[in-house]
């Protein structure tokens, strides 16, 4: 299989697995007694240049730690299959710490397993834990809209037409918050800027995403960004059409070195080793954990060559303010794109404000509707 | 970089038909190739539902070869060869007595998709060189029109191929032999031809076209390889053949219609009309079903259908 | 006297033939399975994975422990029901590949039924859900049958198109009219309530869906092989023109069997809601209907054979995670193995009647 040679990472993984398999009587090296087995479960392919790859990078950072064995499964759907994957990791591999990384795994699957296996720790990505849930379950999430706000600033400065595009999967609060933060950032740089949204309807639909990007370009959009699981298609299509793009989930600059302006990235490789270390030391890990730039859970991609001085300066300033804390992206007076005031003048909603979690509007300057 | 905003605004709703046409050209090519290939296969009296697997294998191998060699055209060639191998596999299984061609098709769909995902794992991340396009509207100052007429060579080949196949089926000796095998195996035997050999050739040719159709997905639009690349284009294209009554030219129009319907949803949203996008996204399927309901009847469905085809018997 | 003995001997012979045929229909698929395992073994062997290691692991993941068995049986449960969606109409020679659509519609209708009865007793709600699931799935595929019978629309194609349409409907309803506003980032309907969930079979973690599946398969077997209705259906499947000539009501057979097949898949959708998810959302379209097609063809559309085949495929699915983690093989290995098994079993159709051992003795 000559193709296998070209992915060293994959090849080494395979080789390591095979060596392990041949060394034991029963295949696969069982964990050593003093080793902690940490399981990672992904909803898609971990090479997707997106959501799952960001988590896999976190898993890779955990793999580098001493005394830890990492278990990974990819393409696990949000059905009973994920319950069985978790149980299999617990029962057959002795995993005691699990990272089911897809949002939809939590209810009912993670909750069910947390009740059944009280000695196992479940760290879910999504920020969904409430005090009535089992205490061995936990859920964390990052305020990635902070980075989308920075991307918006850069996009607003760079765009010549003032028309920005956003390819989104579904109109859910997390996505709307990203679209709004991006637009507010852009309008802070160029008050005339507008963001055109297209919902594809699902998290991974390459042909639809390419079609959406093309439609946006045809409408005069010259900077596009996205919130789908794998941004590769949007980034490449934008670059081929000769417009600019800002990334999401991961750093996609190698896919479009000239067109890539910046991007909103997760920083799980910072968080996961921290959690695993706390777990091994027996320290309590917060059940509900959220953070943004300040906590280092998210980070912007390095600026691309097309980003000008003014853009860099304004984005760096905003980043400094967000990192220091106290700066609110969503503050009054804020009007949605139907003319309704959603945040009254004089009030502001800081990042930890729970009302932001229920966002169901698109701010003024966004073309599109939430239903 | 992009045209001035005023030009855009002036275009307004007129942008919709342009966007739909542009989308139709972009999206329809895989449907066109797969349906032309399936048309050949079915005219010889066999149905190959496995073209979904062939399409995905073609997409994967085309991308892989383009990545390894640096030449997207070698990728297209490889996709065609892989497609012909899958066609040969289908024909070989079906030539065994009592083996059902529809079932083998479903099995090959599963096998092809699985194999492509398996081998294609290391290809999700890298970037391969993709096929160039030809700008037919360089003279125009309307960027939307220029984009609508930025056309891939494969699409042009498809345009030429459809009437050529129609002519070849009607007027050449090969076409006649193929159709004879499809209408009556006994008649072909009586003329001294091996029905299995004819169908082997027809299924392999169908596989070549389906593989090339797949390579269009990975090497031109959207132009990368991943496991969600095909959302059932291969199997829907097989549906289009029945819809197009086994006529290559109608296959062409059906593919364009289907591609255009698929482009409707995003185009409407880009104009700010975003209600009910799931239903708009399902438009191609609803449209195909409706047209089939309207145009079929208990008797007329047999018109144009090869008599040896298992689905019409 | 002599006549009586002769009749007895003939009966014994007939029984012997029956046994021989039964043995043939067990031995040949097993041979095909073996061939598939050898081929897949070579496939992974090329990548320096020891096939014996692989199969030992797969056995452990599928049947090696009580946990593995439960994993396998839980996965098998929906497959038995969705396989019936292909197998029942197949008695008439129809190829239906749209079980996924019936599954989705069944789950959606069952959820709607539960939400329409907020104050009813759990048993009433569950019965209403089952009724709605059966009816929605049944009507969905009966529509396919009606299109075939009255308009001549090819059933393979229309059932496939209806899968895409069902999933679009599901998404549109779940994110629109049926959405629970509190389901923020995972658009879903309201929950049907813990009290209305159907539990597990006592002493296990396997939900009652498995029992429903087995009962449905047994009933389908009786219907197809032990009633005149089933006999008539098989005549139609064997030769449509002959069936019409002897005056069988083909239309009624088509609609009934399509309805029953769709109802089975719809019931599977209802169980997915009532035993697993608790609410409807995009996760309902998880591919159970598609795998059901494979199960039906592997079982050669025999409802009884569907049960072991579903367990086999459930086991392959259950072991997929383990081989991914221990051997570093891609998750698609499962698909490749399933594809090879499928091809080998279908190819083995050609072997029937080729072995002297299984052919009826000359008298």
Would you mind describing this structure in some detail?
- The complex is a heterotrimer of chains A (371), B (313) and C (363).
- The longest helix of chain A has 17 residues, at 173-189.
- Chain A has ten helices and 17 strands.
- Chain A has helices at residues 8-23, 51-63, 80-93, 106-116, 145-158, 173-189, 206-218, 232-240, 268-280, 309-324; strands at residues 36-41, 68-73, 95-100, 121-125, 137-142, 163-168, 194-199, 223-227, 244-249, 260-266, 288-291, 298-300, 330-331, 334-335, 341-343, 348-349, 366-367.
- Helices cover 37% and strands 21% of the residues of chain A.
- Chain A is of the alpha/beta class and 371 residues long.
- Chain B is mostly helical and 313 residues long.
- In chain B, 69% of the residues lie in helices and 2% in strands.
- Chain B starts with a helix and ends in an 18-residue tail after the last helix.
- Mean pLDDT of chain B is 87; it is low at 1-10.
- The longest helix of chain C has 45 residues, at 2-46.
- In chain C, 74% of the residues lie in helices and 0% in strands.
- Chain C is an all-alpha fold.
- Classes of the chains: A alpha/beta (371), B mainly alpha (313), C mainly alpha (363).
Q: Got a strand count of chain A?
A: 17
Tally the beta strands of chain C: 0
Structural class by SSE content of chain A: alpha/beta
- Termini gap of chain A: 48 Å
Domain count of chain A: the total is 2
**Individual helix count of chain A:** 10
Largest sheet of chain C: none
Give the class-level CATH name of the largest domain in chain A.
Alpha Beta
CATH architectural grouping of the largest domain in chain C = Orthogonal Bundle
CATH topology of the largest domain in chain C: ABC transporter involved in vitamin B12 uptake, BtuC
- N- and C-termini, Cα separation of chain C: 20 Å
Radius of gyration of chain A: 21 Å
- Gross morphology of chain A is globular
Oligomer: heterotrimer
Helices and strands in order:
The complex is a heterotrimer of chains A (371), B (313) and C (363).
Chain A: H1 8-23, E1 36-41, H2 51-63, E2 68-73, H3 80-93, E3 95-100, H4 106-116, E4 121-125, E5 137-142, H5 145-158, E6 163-168, H6 173-189, E7 194-199, H7 206-218, E8 223-227, H8 232-240, E9 244-249, E10 260-266, H9 268-280, E11 288-291, E12 298-300, H10 309-324, E13 330-331, E14 334-335, E15 341-343, E16 348-349, E17 366-367
Helix pairs in contact in A: 2-9, 3-4, 5-6, 5-10, 7-8
Chain B: H1 5-11, H2 15-43, H3 51-69, H4 72-94, H5 101-120, E1 133-135, H6 143-148, E2 150-152, H7 153-171, H8 173-183, H9 185-190, H10 195-219, H11 233-243, H12 248-270, H13 277-281, H14 283-295
Antiparallel strand pairs in B: 1-2
Helix pairs in contact in B: 2-7, 2-10, 2-11, 2-12, 3-4, 3-5, 3-10, 3-11, 4-5, 4-10, 7-8, 7-12, 11-12, 12-14
Chain C: H1 2-46, H2 51-64, H3 66-90, H4 99-116, H5 122-151, H6 155-175, H7 209-226, H8 228-238, H9 240-245, H10 250-277, H11 288-298, H12 303-327, H13 333-347
Helix pairs in contact in C: 1-13, 2-3, 2-12, 3-4, 3-7, 3-10, 3-11, 3-12, 4-5, 4-6, 4-10, 4-11, 5-6, 5-10, 7-8, 7-12, 8-10, 11-12
